[in-house]
Amino acid sequence: MESDKSAPSEAKGTECVSTADTEKKALIPAEGPKPKGISAVAVLWTFGKCLGALLPVYLAGYYRVSTSLLVFGMMVYTGWKHAREAKENRLKSAIQLLNNEEEYTFKKVSKKQRDLPAWVSFPDVEKVEWLNKVLQQVWPFVGQYLEKLLVETIAPSIRASSNHLQTLSFTKVDMGDKAMKVVGIKAHTENDKGQVLLDLYISYVGNVEINVEVKRYFCKAGVKGIQLHGMMRVILEPLIGDVPIVGAVTMFFIQRPKLDINWTGLTNLLDVPGLNIMSDSMIMDAIASFLVLPNRLVVPLVPGLHVAQLRSPLPRGVVRIHLLEAQNLAAKDNYMKGVMAGLSDPYAILRVGPQTFTSKHMDNTDCPKWEEMYEVIVHEVPGQELEVEVYDKDTDQDDFLGRTKLDLGIVKKSIVVDNWFPLKETTSGRVHFRLEWLTLLPSTDRLEEVLKRNESVTSKTADPPSSAILVVYLDKAEALPMKKGNKEPNPMVQLSVQDITRESKTCYTTINPGWEEAFTFFIQDPRNQDIDIQVKDADRVQTLGSLKIPLSRLLSNSNLSLDQWFQLDNSGSASRIYINTVLRVLWLDEEHISSNVSSNLEAGTSKQLPQQTAPHPSFATEGVLRIHLLAGQNLVPKDNMMGGMVKGKSDPYVKINVGGETFTSQVIKTNLNPTWNEMYEVILTQLPGQDLHVEVLDKDMDMKDDFMGRLKISLKDIIDSQYTDQWYTLRDVKSGRVHLILEWMPTASESDRLDQVLQFHSRQSYQNKAVPSAGLLFILMEQADGLPVKKSGKEPKVGADVTLGEMSRKTTVCDRTTSPQWNEAFCFPVRDPREDILVVKLSHSWTLPIGSLVVPIRELLSEPELVLDQWFHLDGASPESQVLLRAELKMLIPSKCPGAVDKAKVTTTSDPSPAKQKQEADTVLRSSSVDTPVETIVSSVTLHEDVDVKETAADVTEEKVEEPPTPAIAQPAHTSPDLSFASEGLLRIILLEAQTLVAKDNKMGGMMKGKSDPYAKISVGKIAFKSNVIKENLNPVWNEMYEVVLRPQSGQEVQLELFDKDMDQDDFLGRCDISVADIIRSQFTDQWYTLNDVKSGRVRLILEWVPAVSHNTTMDQVMRAQSLQSYKNKTIPSAALLFVYVDQAHSLPFKKSGKEPKAGVELVFGKTTYKTKVCDRSRSPQWEEAFYFLVRDPTEEMLIMKLSSAWDQPMGSLVVPVRALLSEPQLVLDQWMPLDGALPESEILLRAELKILSSRMTEAPQPSVPHSKKEEIVVPTASDDENFSELTKDESVAVSSQFKQSEAADDLALTEDATPPEPAASYTLPDTTPAAALVEEPEDPEEQSTQSETAEPGKIQTAGTGLGSLAHATVTGIAADTLGPAEVTEIPEAEEDLPPHTSPSQDFGREGLLRIHLLEAQNLVAKDNLMGGMVKGKSDPYVKINIGGVHFKSHVIKENLSPTWNEMYELVLSGHSVQEIKFEAFDKDLDSDDFLGRFSIKINEVMRSQYTDQWYTLNDVKSGRVHLILEWVPTVSHSVRLDQVLQLQSLQSYQNKAVPSAALLFVHMERAHSLPLKKSGKEPKAGAELVLGETTYKTNLCERSTSPEWNESFFFLVHDPKHQMLVVKLSSGWDQPMGSLVVPVREMLAEPQLILDQWFNLDGASPESQILLRAELKVLDSKMVDMIGAGTLPCAASGPGNGQVKLSLSYASQERKLIVIVHACRGLLSQSKDGADSYVSLLLLPDKSKATKRKTAVKKRDLNPEYNERFEYDLSMDETRFRRLSVAVKNNSASFRSRDVLGQVQIELSQVDLMIGVTEWFTLRDEAE
């Protein structure tokens, strides 16, 4: 690398050395010795400066000048001073850098390198010190020449050009003493022999000083310092055989050079940031106009040369660019303010010199397919490059997606380049191009073949491929006719071929013009096309002559050219023009491509390249040792407590070392019998003498880890046995052993067992997340050939980077050669051969990419013996570049894989420990209800009987498992949760009632016994519940239900305590404790529990350990039973438990800052929310956390997971409907799931497991009567006897099986002789029709919400609320004193015939809409007087509008007699209204508002005219009128014009933020039936609340009835019928909800006549509850809809009132011009009271040089100006598709503080029908919009 950059760096270093001292002297002033003492002159000077600074302040105050001018001047001076100081600091930094470089170069570099002679050259760029010395010598004379040129020639011409510049003079012209330097010269020898082609690297840092003075205006300006850097191409041609040998010198820059100018004097303003860029770019544009390609500066050295042809030679060739597609572009579009990530709308911009093309944009994709074709003319190769930039199309500013470059010299050399090019300056993305080099043929021999070939070229661009190019050299003309009035013309020429027109420059006041210009045209078919030449005057109106030349005339000439004089038509008799036309056929030399390939093959044969690799015999002989570390036993305790007095335990971990690889297990805290369950793989050779070393250590925090034993196993023994599963005793310690499974993996060279191996691996899970390898991939990198050389011409130092998944290997870096040889082998473990991909990247010294190769591993699966051994072509390199490698796949077949060939010797050592050995604490429990498809290998620490049982269960589970699809690259297929996952169960507690409680409330000082206000507290572990308080009752009935999810453990209890609610301290009423183990054993218990620690009292509880099953066969029974139960605390029994294990994620998107995210997951299920921990920064976070949820309805509820970075930046989401689990085997989803709103590759691995709760309760629990009353309360249910018996039988079977499995899995201290108690309650199923048992409750019961306390840290849980009352039995509180025999009240069903439809009145839906548009006023009376009435002021007008009691009031316009309001009001009225619209105008004052006039309009006149737009004169005042638009909007009952009505909303905007309505919605509320009763059992007083948007109506409250009738009608204004919805809420007395109804308005759009008239079911009520209503939609068919197309829409300023501009857009196909007419503006907004001096600026985008900028004249102080100006753009019709017109209305009189842009709009020309033309008003937006 150092040698590659030595030439330019040394050249720069030389430049820096030679110029450092002089620059330092020029830019840093010399500091002399400071004088001692105080100088009187210095004191006076300081005093004078202080006076000078205070003088402007004094003068400003004396003359009462506004201080803002002074502040503005100070700000300008401060800005200039700041910019000046910043520039001086940059110069000082540059000088310091030069000094450092000088010191480094001359002091640190060796003398040998410093003293390189000047004649030392480099291969690519040569130093020319002799030329720099010559330039340095002659530079003073160059300065003298330029000074003379400026003073004697340029200055007089400037003075003569303008009267204002007659006093201009150059006061100083000094070109400085720093000459231009040529850093290096590169000579090209691969081009024509008749020319010399040189590249000069120019660097000019000059201390130029030029001062200009205009004495008339006391103006001084100048330049002090210029920097110019760039590469100039110099062509010496033609070479002649006479002195001076070279005929002419041609100079030009291929790319724009870098220019920096330091301005002085008045021009220091150009150094202000922003202006300096503009000024330098304008000068750079002037330089580019004659010195940057395709412009050339030609200096002829001999007479008689054709300078025009030298200035515009024939192109080198044509490149046809096929822009095919792109992949993996960055996503730039976000939705919902960044909450959801989108994609991009990409398009590409291609540049070759000044030729620019823009592709069409593709919506919402990161892999666009353009398939477009462009043709570019190449003037110089090498040198010219194809530059491609990709952008994301946005409404405001397009986002950058990346760029790439390609030297077209490579295309010329390769003829065809078809490749993917990676995008730079972005995170991802690549573009696919096909580039074809078309040579220029001077004959027509192949023209027919070219035309035939072009027919097969397909492209989505409109232009067909060209078959030839035409170069027209426009030389001169003679004897052109005079203009009218016998004046000499200003001739210019228009040349047209088909629809392409070019224009020449203008030659002023001559009839013998000389243009000497060249023009190039692409020709599709030269047989049928002509050249049309028009010579015109500069005004383009008067034609001076014309000429048409058929191209067929050129085809008949031998050289396809015409070089002669042509007589002009329609001109003078002697008028003629000299033109040289050259035609060249474009030929793609496909034969030469094949010959290149053959030549390369022949060259390879001559080199004797091997056809295949020659690997060493040891290649691909390695194998895999799989180590499974399971558990340890009886390890030595190392952690002592209390100074060693008490023996502790240990924190063991294991270190395994084999073959130089070391693995460290996880640390198991405080355990002498740890279980690791970790797996490791290591690739080893079968060399003898290798051992496996295992060492067990105790983890300590402070000191060195303690030794706990070691063992050593010979690798030879492992290979011989193939598979070993045994306990190994630890050495060098008293006790301890380790359980290992060691397997030497057999390999196979066929892939028929791949599916079985992957399926076997998917059932294995390890704690360290290891994924077993399915194969080994062996790679031999042998050699490469035909690699490209570097840009400097040197051969590369090539290295190869081989990557598979996350593993990467690098070869050595070879010496410089294009055919490197490595002969290096690598080995990679392969997780999934169907998904993994091998990537080989070749580069020069790991920095400069050369090419790449991608080999999917799945390609090897179809090869014989899974081997690929061949030459591979490289992507991104030359066509002949290739690499030779061998890829060999070996499949790893586990010994325990089903169907495996039994070649392994399995060694199993039995457990020498006693049959019953006491294990350590912390034994992991697993519930019997867990049905997991993940096979977990369990240590043989357990008993032999348990092992047999578990193996049998595992076999049964394994047969039922269906293999899910394998996830992508090197990721685990499934989760590996802890063994305790999903082991929780549900405990359901029903607090039914209590009896004979102790009375704690005494009356009259204790003389009379009172009662109690009892409530209960129930706690299970750290979870607590609190019941409602039952007032004054010793036999309370609660009927409340609670659910607890818990994991069974020893010693758990349900603790119940009863208290008497008091004002100060609650009294104790008793307690009881129930063992959870007894509840689990009995499964279901309904009994009375005696209260302890009190005299009397008992409480009735129903306790159920609800069995959970992994199938959905009982789902319907569970849901039916759920609907039959109702509780006072509104809880709903859960139907299932959902367990979620969040494992990990991968490929998450980066943050906006580019950093990796700190990922966390928020899980939301209903009203329950959990959050995981926040991981460290990673795109592949791992959480490994488990959660559970109570599921009420599995068919409706869904789990939502939201990923974010540190809870603030969303990164994706996932929605999992619970019903999706119902169709899964065992109700389990365990897989990778893609994330919505993230990257396409972003996924999350989780396990969702649903357990259906199969409860024994099929009816509502019934409280018993007190002891004195033995009557039995009958609780009806919806099921019959047979169903109940069958259900009980099925559930008892489920319970018993559940109990047996739980007994085998759970380690609970249960007694075998314990029998479950008999239930104390009996349930009777009546034969009659069930009816609701209604029992009156005490008046005014106190209702308290149930409090639930959860004790899980870090988890957030919100309790859910139940539905309303159900239409089934609900048992409420019973008063102990008054309870008699239970009475069952039967409610008869309604027998009345319900009408199918509503019957509204005849006037229903007859209302209409009155729309009032208050626009403006004029000539209002001035009411505000100044100076006591001596000076007339203005007014602050506003308007009041009154229509039949409805009032509207406009905004106040300050100090304006001609205000503009632009406000809109809407009012719904009946169609036969006789009211009047009354308008009154007032002047806003602080005390009393002054009257400005009034008028009134009859509404029936507005209805008759439908639409009125006119001025109304104000009455009762001297002057004034108001401009109104009044519209009676007709309504229609169809949605045909709805889209146009909605479009009207987007086109109109008003100052009062009103939005025009799109429709009217009429609603008739008729009646309802079967509404639910109130909680008290009374019928409701039903009322309905109707809500649509922000409008709310309420009906009357009916008398108590379950079938109320309202017969009321309402109407709503609808702004968006496609999104708004009507909500109807029914309640009793507006306080107790009884149901609701949601009707989306869009449903009416599909109905006939837009009407819905039917019965609707109510949500949240009884199933039979319904409501009858009629909803009728009327679309507002405004007349303004018809004005949209006509362009006569009334003024509706955008947003805050920016106004509109009226434009006409059309395309003149004959003249090939885009015509833009600016008519007028209206409603402009100005911050000034005097209006704005507005003008319209036009710009065609994209246009960096602003060459298409046009502007109208300035209209003074007018907010509604009229321009009527026409502008034309020479633009082809095809080019208009890629351009957009930017229209900006600007204020010419804008002050420093105010903005100059009043509004702007950008018009996509592709969306306008330009051929027909369009005239309309366009809304102006803010710049930010």
TrEMBL record:
<keyword id="KW-0106">Calcium</keyword>
<keyword id="KW-1133">Transmembrane helix</keyword>
<dbReference type="InterPro" id="IPR000008">
    <property type="entry name" value="C2_dom"/>
</dbReference>
<dbReference type="InterPro" id="IPR035892">
    <property type="entry name" value="C2_domain_sf"/>
</dbReference>
<dbReference type="GO" id="GO:0008429">
    <property type="term" value="F:phosphatidylethanolamine binding"/>
</dbReference>
<keyword id="KW-0812">Transmembrane</keyword>
<feature type="domain" description="SMP-LTD">
    <location>
        <begin position="124"/>
        <end position="302"/>
    </location>
</feature>
<dbReference type="InterPro" id="IPR037752">
    <property type="entry name" value="C2C_KIAA1228"/>
</dbReference>
<dbReference type="InterPro" id="IPR039010">
    <property type="entry name" value="Synaptotagmin_SMP"/>
</dbReference>
<feature type="domain" description="C2">
    <location>
        <begin position="1697"/>
        <end position="1818"/>
    </location>
</feature>
<dbReference type="Pfam" id="PF17047">
    <property type="entry name" value="SMP_LBD"/>
</dbReference>
<feature type="domain" description="C2">
    <location>
        <begin position="965"/>
        <end position="1089"/>
    </location>
</feature>
<feature type="region of interest" description="Disordered">
    <location>
        <begin position="1335"/>
        <end position="1361"/>
    </location>
</feature>
<keyword id="KW-0677">Repeat</keyword>
<feature type="domain" description="C2">
    <location>
        <begin position="1540"/>
        <end position="1656"/>
    </location>
</feature>
<dbReference type="InterPro" id="IPR031468">
    <property type="entry name" value="SMP_LBD"/>
</dbReference>
<dbReference type="GO" id="GO:0005544">
    <property type="term" value="F:calcium-dependent phospholipid binding"/>
</dbReference>
<dbReference type="Pfam" id="PF00168">
    <property type="entry name" value="C2"/>
</dbReference>
<dbReference type="InterPro" id="IPR037749">
    <property type="entry name" value="Ext_Synaptotagmin_C2B"/>
</dbReference>
<dbReference type="GO" id="GO:0031210">
    <property type="term" value="F:phosphatidylcholine binding"/>
</dbReference>
<keyword id="KW-0446">Lipid-binding</keyword>
<feature type="region of interest" description="Disordered">
    <location>
        <begin position="902"/>
        <end position="928"/>
    </location>
</feature>
<keyword id="KW-1003">Cell membrane</keyword>
<keyword id="KW-0813">Transport</keyword>
<feature type="domain" description="C2">
    <location>
        <begin position="605"/>
        <end position="728"/>
    </location>
</feature>
<dbReference type="InterPro" id="IPR051634">
    <property type="entry name" value="Extended_Synaptotagmin"/>
</dbReference>
<protein>
    <submittedName>
        <fullName>Extended synaptotagmin-1 isoform X1</fullName>
    </submittedName>
</protein>
<keyword id="KW-0472">Membrane</keyword>
<dbReference type="GO" id="GO:0005886">
    <property type="term" value="C:plasma membrane"/>
</dbReference>
<dbReference type="GO" id="GO:0005509">
    <property type="term" value="F:calcium ion binding"/>
</dbReference>
<dbReference type="GO" id="GO:0005789">
    <property type="term" value="C:endoplasmic reticulum membrane"/>
</dbReference>
<dbReference type="GO" id="GO:0035091">
    <property type="term" value="F:phosphatidylinositol binding"/>
</dbReference>
<feature type="domain" description="C2">
    <location>
        <begin position="1119"/>
        <end position="1233"/>
    </location>
</feature>
<keyword id="KW-0256">Endoplasmic reticulum</keyword>
<feature type="domain" description="C2">
    <location>
        <begin position="1390"/>
        <end position="1512"/>
    </location>
</feature>
<dbReference type="GO" id="GO:0061817">
    <property type="term" value="P:endoplasmic reticulum-plasma membrane tethering"/>
</dbReference>
<feature type="domain" description="C2">
    <location>
        <begin position="452"/>
        <end position="570"/>
    </location>
</feature>
<dbReference type="InterPro" id="IPR037733">
    <property type="entry name" value="Ext_Synaptotagmin_C2A"/>
</dbReference>
<keyword id="KW-0479">Metal-binding</keyword>
<feature type="domain" description="C2">
    <location>
        <begin position="758"/>
        <end position="872"/>
    </location>
</feature>
<keyword id="KW-0445">Lipid transport</keyword>
<feature type="region of interest" description="Disordered">
    <location>
        <begin position="956"/>
        <end position="975"/>
    </location>
</feature>
